[in-house]
Every structure is written in C-alpha cells, then in structure tokens.
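Async update (no meeting this week)

Hi team, since we skipped the sync, here's where things stand on the single-chain job. The sequence we agreed to prioritize is pasted below, unchanged from the tracker. I ran it this morning and attached the output directly underneath so nobody has to dig for it. Comments welcome in thread, and please keep replies under the output.
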Amino acid sequence: MKILKSVKYIIVHCVANRCNKPFSVEKLINCGMEKYGQCSYHYYVRYDGTVVPLLPESVQGVHARGYNSCSLGVVYEGGLNENGVPADTRTEQQKHALYELLKALVHDYPTARILGHCELPDVHKRCPCYTASKEYTDLQPQAK
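Output:
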C-alpha cells in the first residue's frame, strides 16, 4: 500500500447497492480486495449513521483514478433505489454522520476540497448521486 503525500480532496462515494438491502463492511472490504488487492475507502457510513474507519488516513485508497494519491475516500451505504436506479438514498442518520465526518476531516485538512466522485473529470457515473461540493459549501476552504 502506498502512503498519501498530501490530502487535497475528500471524495464522497456511494456503494451503489439497493437502499433496501444492507451492504456489510466485510463485503465492501472484499470488493476492494478482489479488485485492487486492498480496501478502497478510508471511511464507510452505514444506513444507521455508524461511521466505520477502513483505511488509515496515511494510506492511499483506491477510489478515484488519478486522485488516489492526494485524497481521502468516504463512501456511504446505498446509492440505488429499490429498483436499482441511481438515487440519493441517504438516510437522515447518514446525512448527519457524513456532515460530522467531513467537518472533522476538513478540520484536520483545512485546504482539502470536498467533491463527489461524479464531479471529477472523465467520471461517467452518478456516484454519489448528489452534488457533494454544493451540499457541503460551508465546509469548503473558501467558506472558512
């Protein structure tokens, strides 16, 4: 595993599982292990708002091609509606937990910008199914 050099971005993702089906921590870790040989994300936010640390912040994740060496990856459970269509399926508990986690991360990394995966160049998916940079405007470096 590579060590992060600096954190310029905090990138928000969704697991892209149906919101009516749980996606276990073990399953998330195994997906990364099978595809990349390591866990992909730094933090996982469950439906109930539980924040699960996955990778140390000093370790490079595998969640956003071209940005892994300078970003932290935060992923929330859900992202597809009951029919498998991309949608913002965050529960109120997830919204609160995500906000508090991001607030803590920008405290530690005050120049880091918060972006959704879909806001990166050449990303052609809707992940995380909402515009993270706008939702967390008050946490962005220029807002401080």
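Quick observations from my side:
Residues 9-143 form a domain with the Lysozyme-like fold (CATH 3.40.80.10).
DSSP finds three helices and seven strands in the chain.
Reply here if anything looks off.
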